[in-house]
Amino acid sequence: MWVKEFIDKIADGTFTNNDIIEYADQKADKIGLLWNLYFADKDVIETTGKPQITDDRQINRISNAMDIISSSFNISIWNESNTAKPQQPAHFTRQFTADEQKKLFDGLTNGYFLPQGTDYSHFCYVFGGTIPNDRKPFEPLIWQKSLGLLAYMIDILFSDTDGTNLWETTAKCFVWKEKAPNKNSMKNTVSKYRENDGYTKKPKGYEYLDNILRA
């Protein structure tokens, strides 16, 4: 479920407290989720410039959801001086040229590794860029192929630049089967083909992905 849909269900009273906790528990970046909730009633409709959420009952439900998540997971978006400071989602640090970003985006979407409707600005943010203010909040990219192929792509593209935080960053930048990708599973995939002869242990379908990554 997209974060926007989650917020809408909270605002209209569809979600119970247990629903809120269960959804938040699936999110790797819970602080980012809190910030999305915090700014929900401050987002404006582009055509009118007016806030999208104005009903006091809806605003109170969103505020209550923030309290539930904060207390359930012992997290907060407020610093010691009680001043809010947005925390940016993680992204990989390797730098891509604009042409490299576009070529990679086209290859991954045309090959159905990512949905055709993937937000290009969010893609560029994950792959070393920034999100324009009018395209926030950030949504993790939806990976449609196997988890093994996601691990393979991340290893090929980012192991040299993001080795220390490789799988933590992946879990914050991607969604697989509506959840954050399992970090241990991705590590195991890479370990298998690195420790063996390589080819026999690589995930099924890696050849097609190689053509995209090395184009």
Kindly summarize this structure in a few lines.
By secondary structure, the protein is mostly helical. It has helices spanning 3-11, 17-25, 30-38, 56-73, 98-110, 120-126, 147-158, 166-173, 183-195, 206-213; strands at 141-143, 174-176. It is elongated.
Question: How would you describe this structure in keywords?
Answer:
215 residues; two-stranded parallel ribbon; 2 strands; elongated
**Global geometry:** elongated
User: H/E order of the elements?
Assistant: HHHHHHEHHEHH
How many β-strand stretches? 2
Specify the number of helices. Answer: 10
**Could you tell me the strand content as a percent range?**
under 5%
Structural class: mainly alpha
| Estimated helix fraction | 40-55%
